[in-house]
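Response to reviewer comment R2.3. The reviewers asked that we include at least one raw input/output pair. We reproduce the pair for ROK family protein here without editing.
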Amino acid sequence: MERSGTFDGVHRRNLSKLLTLVHLEGPLSRARLTAVTRLNRSTVAALAAELVDLGLAVERAPDPTNRVGRPSPVVAPSPDVVAIAVNPELDAVTIAAVGLDGRIPVRERVEVDHIVTPAETAALVAGVIARWRSSELAGSRLIAVGLAVPGLVRADDGLVRFAPHLDWRDVPLPALVEGETGLPAVVGNDATFGVTAEHLFGAGRGVDHIVYLNGGASGIGGGLIVHGLPVGGAGGYAGEFGWNRPGIADPDDRTAPAGVLEAEVSRARLLAVAGLAHADEPTLAAALTASDDVEVAAELARQRRILSTALANAVNVLNPSLVILGGFLATVAASDPDALHDAVVAQAMPAAAEGLEIRVAALGEDRLLIGAAEAAFADLLRDPIR
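Raw output as returned:
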């Protein structure tokens, strides 16, 4: 075990610091890296060169500038280093390659006509990876697989304790995927990965207190950022807003007696009023936005009212400065954002709702995939040499 005070330990931490900076911020000049890290210029130059030698970064000439003196070379994460991100759902399994530089060079939505098993999911992922290795990802370095699962995932080992809509119970998904793909695998709750992505790269960037709700085919999940850090709870199961039972002021708004939030605020109900059997997020959003059907408007308003009560409860308990809504919840919010905000504030304690903002997820349908990839990159970013 290395001691934190040894040269090797310090060196590894400095490499991690540089690689993490260019991963999160994008290409940075050596001069900027020197200023941010407070390391000396020669150390930054040596670290950047080592990251290049490791195949994790690239250095390029600086952009033309009118500044006096020699411009500083720019360091960027290598576009050839990628993670595979996977989101299994009721109607489809979405797979993407996410680069260390933030690009998504290839993604695929595999629609299914049945609920996939864990073993089918692992085999499907392996097949797509094998095909991509000889085409879109030829020459790429695959680091790991990250899987964003709509259910309870144990933080310690990635065991899927219960994914109710997929009917997965106590599934050792990391081992299944590693056995099929030969790559390390990390598994987490989809909404937890979603809030991580939005906090690092999206609508919650720079915000330290966030409540995030994700709406997908399997219902509603949530994620929390408190004091700038993700909150998972004792076992990693925090944020299951969809299983809370919302208060519904108007009895006519209730469609599922004694139902939980995700039974009332539902993607399936939106698909039904839009006349769609299935659709990805952009397709459903476009159909609802373009519709002038009074039934569509009424259902959006009904779901918005119930959602506002659930969000007000979260605001009272957690006092966030920002609420982010992803998936079909973003479409519900966007149908009348002012009405949603006003309804939340009206039901929350005035002090808790002061300055509250409600935003839709900035990363759109990529948010869960980017979050899963971030988990897959975690070990590399922590120790680039290992």
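The first helix runs from residue 7 to 25. The radius of gyration is 22 Å. Further pairs are available on request from the corresponding author.
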